[in-house]
């Protein structure tokens, strides 16, 4: 092989390496949003789910908790009463059973409403993400790997479909249950109200200090 052929081959390889480096530089590095989730992200998600249905969900949760708390209070009142006649016992049983049936009915409505809210929110976010993706300039697709784009419509949407609804359900149910328990304690022990505010402040401080400072969340919520 002549020297000119070797030089041409080296120049060709050098040119290929330069092009490869230029193509590599064109691809933008993916940046994941970390830290505390901004309040605007929650508002955007709730708006996508439908604000009226969220209030309806809270209403059903409150009604369910009222039924549960009412059944506990009624049971305590029943156990402290001296009932001898069967008619009075039947009335107590009927009211207690009605409260239990009411709780089950409202829990069913909670499950149905939550399912509709989450499906509606995921559909709206998916449609907005697709609409924004189709309006992007061609340079975006030249500098963004295809797998990263597909990931927005697969993994991120899957998180919105599965993880967020489950956590949202736990949050609402736990919050309402805590309020119901606190009300029941205050009803049975009024002295507890004097220490309720300091305990609430202490709880919030512990909760804030124990939260992880770096929390990643789906990019689909920030790109829609």
From TrEMBL:
Main location: membrane
Subcellular location: Endomembrane system
Gene Ontology molecular functions: ABC-type transporter activity; ATP binding
Family annotation (PROSITE patterns): ABC_TM1F (PS50929)
UniProt KW DNA-binding keyword: no
GO annotations of cellular component type: endomembrane system; membrane
Entry keywords, A to Z: ATP-binding, Membrane, Nucleotide-binding, Repeat, Transmembrane, Transmembrane helix, Transport
Pfam families (alphabetical): ABC_membrane
Topological type in the membrane: Multi-pass membrane protein
Gene3D superfamilies: ABC transporter type 1, transmembrane domain
InterPro entries: ABC1_TM_dom, ABC1_TM_sf, ABC_transporter_C-like
Protein name per its UniProtKB record: Multidrug resistance-associated 1-like
Organism this protein belongs to: Paramuricea clavata (Red gorgonian)
């Amino acid at each position: 092989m002549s020297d000119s052929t070797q030089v041409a081959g080296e120049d060709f390889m050098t040119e290929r390496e330069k092009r490869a480096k230029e193509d590599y530089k064109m691809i933008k590095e993916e940046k994941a949003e970390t830290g505390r989730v901004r309040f605007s992200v929650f508002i955007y998600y709730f708006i996508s789910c439908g604000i009226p249905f969220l209030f309806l969900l809270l209403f059903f949760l409150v009604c369910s908790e009222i039924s549960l708390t009412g059944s506990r209070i009624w049971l305590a009142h029943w156990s402290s009463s001296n009932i001898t006649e069967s008619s009075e016992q039947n009335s107590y049983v009927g009211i207690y059973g009605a409260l239990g049936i009411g709780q089950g009915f409202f829990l069913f409505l909670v499950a149905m409403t939550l399912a509709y809210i989450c499906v509606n929110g995921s559909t709206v976010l998916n449609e907005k993400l697709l609409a924004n993706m189709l309006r992007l300039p061609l340079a975006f697709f030249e500098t963004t790997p295809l797998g990263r784009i597909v990931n927005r419509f697969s993994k991120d949407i899957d998180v919105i479909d599965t993880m967020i609804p489950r956590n949202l359900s736990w949050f609402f149910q736990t919050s309402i249950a805590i309020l119901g328990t606190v009300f029941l304690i205050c009803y049975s022990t009024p002295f507890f109200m004097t220490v309720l505010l300091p305990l609430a402040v202490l709880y919030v401080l512990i909760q804030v200090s124990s939260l992880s400072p770096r929390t990643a969340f789906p990019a689909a919520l920030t790109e829609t």
